[in-house]
Design brief:
- The complex is a heterodimer of chains A (265) and B (397).
- Chain A has 9 helices and 14 strands.
- By secondary structure, chain A is α/β, with parallel strands linked by helices.
- Chain A has 2 domains: 205 residues, Aldolase class I (TIM Barrel, Alpha-Beta Barrel); 51 residues, no CATH class.
- In chain A, the strands form 2 sheets. In chain A, strands 1-2-4-5-6-7-8-14 form an 8-stranded parallel barrel. In chain A, strands 9-12-11-10 form a 4-stranded antiparallel β-sheet, with helices on one face.
- By secondary structure, chain B is an alpha/beta fold.
- Chain B folds into 2 domains: 279 residues, TIM Barrel (Alpha-Beta Barrel); 78 residues, Beta Barrel (Elongation Factor Tu (Ef-tu), domain 3), CATH 2.40.30.
- In chain B, strands 1-2-3-4-5-6-7-11 form an 8-stranded parallel barrel, surrounded by 5 helices. Chain B has an 8-stranded antiparallel β-sheet with strand order 17-16-22-13-14-21-18-19.
- In chain B, helix 1 packs parallel to helix 2 and helix 1 runs parallel beside helix 9.
- Chain B is globular and about 65 Å long.
- The two termini of chain B are 27 Å apart.
- Classes of the chains: A alpha/beta (265), B alpha/beta (397).
- Chains A and B meet through helix 2, helix 4, helix 5, helix 6 and strand 9 of A and helix 4, helix 5, helix 6, helix 7 and strand 8 of B.
- Strand 10 of chain A pairs antiparallel with strand 8 of chain B.
Chain lengths: 265, 397
């Protein structure tokens, strides 16, 4: 994996310089009022050579506000988006438009269909196996983006779930907590903004182990979502051994009759 | 124009009841490619039978092809879509662009309804799907009154909105909690409903409260806004629940059928609206509220106390025949002489009746009916029809 192909989210403005020093030059900024789950930035603080993350599902008010800023946003290198309304607004702008519909980029046909409609690239979903990822990369009509490190987003609600519970339980106004499911003890990081609540799996996944199996030419970027670590640490984090490789080696099932015969990919 | 009342049907039996009780259309799933993978669902032969039945009754039928596909799932999709076109279903409900593009590019004669899994809440996203050839949009349950109005105005497409039933905590499709906790893929029909589980609420490794965190939403119930939704021009009102019982489906459909008809006839009263709300809350064993239409749901739209969903015992019997003042009933739950029950059905006004005598299938007088599906006879002075239902007397009307 070439470090120059890493695309990483920014938590604080001064991180860019630190990342540059270790050879990472592609940055993703979550745009204030239009993104959820990550630290956000006002447009005037985001350099034009960066990518903008717009991962909110947008209501009428938000889509109108986005359109009112379209000329300014259109000068940026690209947008990574969840809501297809964003593509509809910017499809005639000279910028990269990258499809990032969480949990939906799970087969080669859909990805190629979106690419054929004019999208620059797509971020492959993380709920599929290594075999499925390789098959997608094999036939994709354009280089794709593989999310190789981070905490996977597992749920997005429009509801202000933490505020609602804080009120019910007479708690302080917590906006970032850990939810521990009582049967499995799985932990989820919950983060709330005025635009809803996002849950992340609270363990970092690391796809470092499959990078040797991937044809680098098929990859546009290796995406990292760093929610916690200092920039200097991130390349070492990628080298760490981990058991958390998500669903790379485990097929999900969906019929109860298949549940007992959970198949290792 | 009167909106379509669209009902869920998890089996051929439920489909028949849905149509009889007033649904204009039903949505069903095949054995593949459909969320609710663990419902009974329809084989290809049953889909043909269902479509023939629907059209013979002047009704419509839509087939869900709404999983989010993995590579292997694509096998057989083309042939399946061609089959659905061949048997002339009235439309398919899809969330994956692979389905929509295949229909468009290969000119398969099917109307595409974009599933609520696509989470459409704004008109630009709606226009994207319009350009892709969508015939109808099933809007996200999160769409507000203003969102719906604007989407209708900007696209001119048929719009379908949910009016009743269970809600996801998340935007539909934007949740894989089930995958992480149980390895069951929520976007291919295996959702284990983790959002209805309880969680500890932690900060810095310590519980913030002993009260379990819950994110369970109450059910959706749009009774208070049906008239306004009709005025907006929503084309189809959808009821959730392909895995629900015939009693639930029939009750909910009949309530909304009569509500819509009364609005059209200008005979709706506040008393009838209250009655609708009472019946709907009782039949699901859950509270229900309007949710996102007029405000952002808060504490009152969720459940926090640990709650068990007890099975509903209100459905007492199904009328299978009525002759000369005697109703033949197939028992569903215990009832006895002296009990006041309620009969309801698509062609009768709901009425109360106190049971004076019960006879078994051989004509012997008995005091109670206590075995599921036992056949009994009751003398009922008001005419009934096959498929009418007898339930616990719950509310006056």
């Amino acid at each position: 994996m070439k470090t120059s192909k890493i695309l990483i989210n920014i938590k604080k403005l001064d991180e860019m310089e630190k990342y540059e020093k270790i050879g990472i030059h592609n940055f993703l900024f979550a745009l204030e009022d239009f993104s959820i789950g990550y630290p956000t930035f006002a447009l005037e603080d985001i350099p034009e050579e960066a990518y903008i993350l717009i991962n909110r599902l947008l209501d009428t008010e938000a889509i109108e506000k986005l359109k009112s800023q379209a000329k300014r946003i259109g000068k940026y290198r690209g947008i990574i988006f969840e809501d297809l309304g964003v593509f509809q607004i910017f499809k005639n702008y000279d910028m990269e438009l990258i499809w990032f519909q969480n949990h939906f980029a799970t087969n080669y046909q859909s990805i190629n269909d979106f690419l054929a409609l004019g999208m620059t690239s797509a971020i492959i979903s993380n709920e599929i196996t290594e075999e499925e990822i390789l098959a997608i990369l094999d036939v994709a009509s354009k280089p794709l983006i593989l999310n190789i490190y981070g905490k996977n987003q597992v749920m997005y609600s429009r509801r202000t779930l933490l505020t609602n519970f804080n009120k019910y339980a007479h708690l302080d106004d917590n906006k970032r907590v850990i939810l521990q499911e009582k049967v499995t003890n799985k932990e989820f990081l919950a983060y709330e903004s005025p635009y809803g609540t996002v849950l992340f799996n609270n363990a970092y996944f690391n796809y470092g182990m499959i990078l040797d199996h991937i044809d680098d030419a098929k990859i546009k970027y290796y995406l990292i979502f760093n929610l916690d670590y200092e920039p200097e640490c991130i390349l070492n984090k990628l080298k760490e051994d981990t058991d958390n490789v998500g669903f790379l080696h485990t097929k999900t099932v969906y019929r109860l009759k298949d549940y007992g015969s959970k198949v290792k990919a | 124009m009167k909106p379509e009342l669209l009902a869920p049907a998890g089996s051929l039996e439920k489909l028949k009841f849905a149509y009889l009780y007033g649904a204009d259309a039903c949505y069903v799933g095949g054995t593949n490619f459909s969320l609710r993978a663990n419902a009974q669902n329809f084989s290809n032969e049953e889909l043909l039978e269902a479509t023939t039945l629907a059209h013979s009754m002047g009704k419509k039928i839509y087939v869900t092809v709404n999983i989010v596909f993995h590579n292997d799932d694509l096998e057989g999709l083309r042939e399946y879509l061609q089959y659905l076109a061949q048997i002339k279903v009235d439309g398919i409900i899809a969330s994956d662009i692979a389905v929509m593009k295949m229909i468009r590019d290969e000119k398969i004669d099917l109307d595409v309804h974009v599933s609520t899994q696509a989470s459409i809440t704004n008109y630009e996203a709606a226009l994207f799907y319009k350009e892709l050839g969508a015939h109808r949009l099933v809007l996200a349950r999160e769409a507000s009154r203003e969102d719906i109005k604007r989407i209708k105005a900007e696209t001119g497409l048929e719009l379908e909105t949910f009016i009743h039933g269970a809600m996801c905590t998340s935007f539909s499709g934007r949740c894989v909690l089930s995958n992480y906790c149980t390895n069951r893929d929520s976007n291919r029909g295996g959702c284990a409903q983790i959002c209805r589980f309880e969680f500890a609420y932690l900060k810095d490794g310590k519980p913030l409260t002993a009260t379990p965190f819950s994110m369970t939403p109450k059910d959706l119930n749009m009774v208070p806004f049906i008239a306004e939704m009709m005025a907006i021009g929503i084309d189809s009102f959808k009821i959730e629940g392909r895995m629900r019982s015939i009693y639930y489906v029939s009750t909910v459909i009949l309530i909304y059928r009569r509500l819509i008809d009364k609005i059209c006839n200008k005979t709706l009263t506040s008393e009838y609206t209250s009655y609708c709300l009472n019946v709907l809350n009782r039949v699901a064993n859950r509270e229900s509220t309007p949710q996102f239409f007029d405000h952002l749901p808060g504490t009152n739209e969720q459940y926090y106390l640990g709650r068990q969903e007890l099975s509903n015992q209100d459905f007492l019997g199904l009328v299978i025949d009525y002759q000369d003042g005697v109703a033949t009933i197939e028992e569903r739950n215990y009832f006895e002489v002296g009990q006041t029950v309620q009969f309801f059905g698509p062609d009768i006004e709901t009425f109360n009746y106190t049971i004076t005598e019960i006879f078994d299938a051989d004509g012997n007088a008995i005091t109670k009916a206590q075995h599921a599906q036992m056949i009994v006879k009751l003398k009922v002075p008001r005419p009934l029809k096959q498929f009418d239902m007898m339930r616990v007397k719950m509310f006056d009307f």
